[in-house]
Amino acid sequence: MTSRVVTADPDEEVAVVARRLLDNRISALPVVGHDGRLCGIVSEGDLMRRAECGRSRSWWLSLMADETADFRKTLGTRVRDVMTHDVVTVDEETPIAEIAHILEMKGIKRVPVLRGGRLAGIVSRADLLRALAAIGDRDDVSPSDDDGQIRARILALLEQRTTAALHAVSVIVVNGSVYLWGTAETQADKDAIRIAAENVAGVAKVHDFLSTLPEVLRSV
C-alpha cells in the first residue's frame, strides 16, 4: 500500500481539492476528519457532477482556465457536500487476492486501508500490480501448476485468437490466478482477451482489470 496519502478535509472548499487532485495527478482523495478517522472519499467524478450542474463548459476546462473568485464562488461548496460517504475499505491484513477481488467486483480503482478505524494508507490498482509482480518474482514462492507455462499458453492463445493490440496488455499469473492489466482498444477486444484467458488449462480465476480506449483515441 501507499502509506503517505494525500487527503482532503471535509470542510475544505471543492475548488481547493480540485486543484490538489490536478497537482498530484490523482483522481480521488480520502476525506479524513479532525479525529483522524476516514469519513468519506472525494473523486473527480464527484466534483464533475457538482461543477457541471447548470454549466455548459467542461469542469476540467473551467478549472484550468478560470482560477478566479467567480469560479471559486461557483464551486463554493464544501467537500462534505459532494463526497461519497459509503466507502469500501480494507485493513492491513487483507490478502492481496481479496483486494483484487474487491476492486474487480466494486469497479473501483483504489481502496483505503484502515488501522483501528483511522487511515493507514491506500491501495491502488498500480500498487496491486506491483505487489503481484513482486510475488511472481520471489524465489521463495512456489507457483502452482507452473504459472510461467500458464502465462505462456495465455499469450500464445491471445496472439492466435484475438485481434487486440497486446503490447498494451500485461498478464500476471500467481498460483493459477490470472490478472489482466492494461488497455484494450474496444470492449469486444477486452471481452475476447478475458474469454481466451479463461479457456486456458490450469487457470483457476481471471481478474479482469483491463480498460478500453476512449473512442476518440482509437485507430490514431
Structure description:
By secondary structure, this protein is an alpha/beta fold. The chain is built from 9 helices and 9 strands. Strands 6, 7, 8 and 9 form a 4-stranded mixed β-sheet that branches. A 3-stranded mixed β-sheet has the order 3-4-5. A two-stranded antiparallel ribbon has the order 1-2. Strand 6 (169-174) and strand 7 (177-184) form a beta hairpin. The model is unreliable at 53-61 and 216-220 (pLDDT under 50).
Explain briefly what this protein structure is.
Helices cover 40% and strands 21% of the residues. The chain is of the alpha/beta class and 220 residues long. Helix 6 packs antiparallel against helix 7 (125-137) and helix 8 (147-161) crosses helix 9.
